[in-house]
Design a protein that fits this description.
Layout: H1 4-17, E1 22-26, H2 42-47, E2 55-58, E3 63-67, H3 72-78, E4 85-88, H4 94-101, E5 107-110, H5 117-128, E6 133-136, H6 141-145, E7 158-159, H7 162-165, H8 169-182, E8 187-190, H9 193-200, E9 202-203, E10 216-220, E11 225-228, H10 236-242, E12 246-249, H11 254-258, E13 265-268, H12 275-284, E14 287-290, H13 295-300, H14 304-331, H15 339-351, E15 356-359, E16 364-367, E17 391-396, E18 398-400, E19 403-404, E20 407-412, H16 418-435, E21 438-440, H17 445-457, E22 468-470, E23 479-484, E24 499-502, E25 505-508, E26 512-515, E27 518-525, E28 534-539, H18 557-574, H19 580-589
Helix pairs in contact: 4-5, 14-15, 16-17
Length: 593
Amino acid sequence: MSTYEDRLKALREELAKRKLDGFVVPLTDEHMSEYVGAYAQRLAWLTGFQGSAGSAVVLPAEAAIFVDGRYTLQVREQVDGTHWSYQSVPQTSIAEWLKAHAPEGGRIGYDPWLHTRGWVKAARAALREKGAELVAVDTNPVDAVWPDRPEPSKARLIAHGDDLAGKSSAEKRQDVADWLAARKADAVVVSALDSIAWLLNVRGQDVERTPVALAYAVVQADGTADLFVAPEKLGEDVRKHLGNAVRIHPRDAFAGYLAEQGGRVIAVDPERAVAAIFEALEAAGAKTVEARDPTVLAKAIKNPAEIAGHKAAQARDGVALTRFLHWFSVEAPKGGLTELDASDKLEEFRRGTGKLRDLSFDTISGAGPNGAVVHYRVTETTNRPIEPGSLFLIDSGGQYEDGTTDVTRTVAIGTPTAEMKDRFTRVLKGHIALARAIFPAGTRGGQLDVLARQYLWEAGLDYAHGTGHGVGAYLSVHEGPQRIATFGGGDEPLQAGMFLSNEPGYYKSGEYGIRIENLVLVETREIAGAEREMLGFETLTFAPIDRELIDAGALSPAERAWLDAYHARVRDLIGPQLDGEAKAWLDDVTRPL
């Protein structure tokens, strides 16, 4: 299995043994997670693709890999086009591609523990038009040919204190019980890992960059819960923290438990629970009720303790990032730095806080043309020198016990071109427009997306990703349901207490990338004479924005005032925690325009 060609060949041979004419390989796990443990990285093992979203289909004579606009460049660099065709989502879908390419009368396999019921229904309907069928497999054929597949993590769970959570697990479970009573349901399956972590006030170490543990939970109508997790992952401290109202079962007992739920009414989230959960319950004679996981919105609306923790984490993280930006301003012009040098140094500054638990995602450290790869991940192979006359984009974040951060800065090494300044300023104007937005309660993120794009659109430019995503409280750096996007989401009404990113960008393939990202908090706005409840954003991230890339003449007086006020806040918050050359540098780069 030394080459990806060998792996593809081995999978085809395994499919032939199982009398399958194809198989679908998604990048997810049994919990529909965005970031997954090493044991579930089937797509990466098979294809070489290192992005965080994608799927593949393998047929006897052809294979395709499906990614969205964030990975258009990356997939071509990492996946061999002689063996795989590149498919763009949402322009196409696996179901549509299968309808066109699956053999007539063919049997296309899928793992029901890795797909939603909605996906299964769509794929089955598409194949039916071709006279083909979708076939559930008992065991995953990729696992059968992956000789050194890692074992799932055995790391122990960690109790997350009520002082940080702001609400006890018992209170949260009672809220879920009330939700069940309103729906006349007996229980709800909670299968998303971050939902379980939030509900039970625990954190884990089973997935890199996301503090969650591999588990399933079922909350009963009386507010008790059944937690399915490997017993060796629970120390006495966590058992005591969970209390007697949370019954513990082995994780591998979950499927058997579902088979015993006949006659009960069980709520299941069709977006976050896999098809196998629905199928097992319905085969047992249970009635399933499709409903969104009741923790999702509650988790998204942060309470005062979570907001206070996040602000403390941001202040700490802002100091680390500012120290890095000062260091970079000194070292980068000398030459000799690489992308890995930069990402390693930024992590060093974060670890220097003494509070970092993990990064919140793999740092995107993109020099020159690599900055145009939206979700670029530097490796020893791709590691590029950071050269004078270029732009450098660094998107990074930290996981702290009190909060999760995510921030992007783009800086010029030397004198930027007029085009670079124009593009950066258009991105900045969009960022400011969104940061200053005031909107009525009930507004959806998709309705605000145009604010960030308008100045790029004026020049015939755009970017192929959403403008904002939700962020967890020491949880997932990408958290729903709120988004600011016109595609792939963005229809959730924004509510006070939600965290989101504000990150417009511009990417010139083969040359450079630009992105400016801060996190924001949705808050109520008191407006004299207002006839409706109004909302706005409080910016939470504080680090300097590169003045050398700003065409100040292109900013309106209101935009200049916003930037000057933002930089004054950076000086006030970050400055007292610096000294010497770093303090003098910050004072200089944040002076009023």
